[in-house]
Amino acid sequence: MTATPAPESLWPARVAILTVLGLNLLLGEHLTPGPNWLLPAVETMLLLPLSVLRGRQRRHLHLHGQADRALSRVTRPLALGLTGLLHLANLTSLGLLVGDLLGGSGATGRALLADALNLWVTNVLVFSLWYWELDRGGALRRTRPGTYPDFLFPQAGTAGLAPEGWRPEYVDYLFVAFTNAAAFSPTDTLPLTRRAKALMTFQAATSMLTVVLVASRAVNILR
After folding, report:
1. What pLDDT is recorded for position 99?
2. In this predicted model, what pLDDT tens digit does every residue of 162-214 receive, in sequence order?
3. 107 burial class (0-12, 13-18, 19+ CB within 10 angstroms)?
4. What are phi and psi of 66, to 5 degrees?
5. Do residues 50 and 78 make contact, with C-beta atoms less than 8 angstroms apart?
6. 87 and 43 in contact (C-beta within 8 Å)?
7. 187: which DSSP letter?
8. If residue 157 lies in a helix (H) or strand (E), which one and from where to where?
9. Domain boundaries, the chain
10. pLDDT tens digits, 87-115
């Protein structure tokens, strides 16, 4: 009898969230709504209870082989709310940066490049969290029978490319987000559902705006 694999570790996603918080703190206050510590503080207040509850949810799933529905009803909206707040903060900062550029910002080219890179990396991390949270209901529900994938990974669609029972984990979704932001299109992993296609389209558009408009203006200033 094949042993049931342990649920996916939640730490890679937690590290990604903490990285986003750190990147937010590096932004100047001209690119944040209020003090640059305010949103990271609010996001940390959401992350701490979410980490504790998700940890309990993972242990319950590992011990009993099924999800704790009561915990799921709390952690699911909390996780989506935190990801949405991270995304909203990044979009707000990008909008403020574009507004500064259109208004003739006096920032140096190096400062603009640093801000653009900060927002681009944050964009990748935030969308990796969206993909990780939404695909088949999230990390702790992804192995349930009868769930349909939002993304088609090559390992899941072709025998012999991965061990039996292979499943995508956070790093796989980080790769999807990075390649989509860099190439402005899917690479080896295809979106299957309309929400996955909408998210990838929005991410590519945001990345294109950051790279083409902001970075190109910064390069011109450096000349």
Report:
1. 84
2. 777 788 899 999 999 999 999 888 888 999 999 999 999 999 999 998 887 77
3. middle
4. -150, 155
5. yes
6. no
7. -
8. helix 154-157
9. 11-222
10. 999 999 999 888 877 776 666 667 788 88
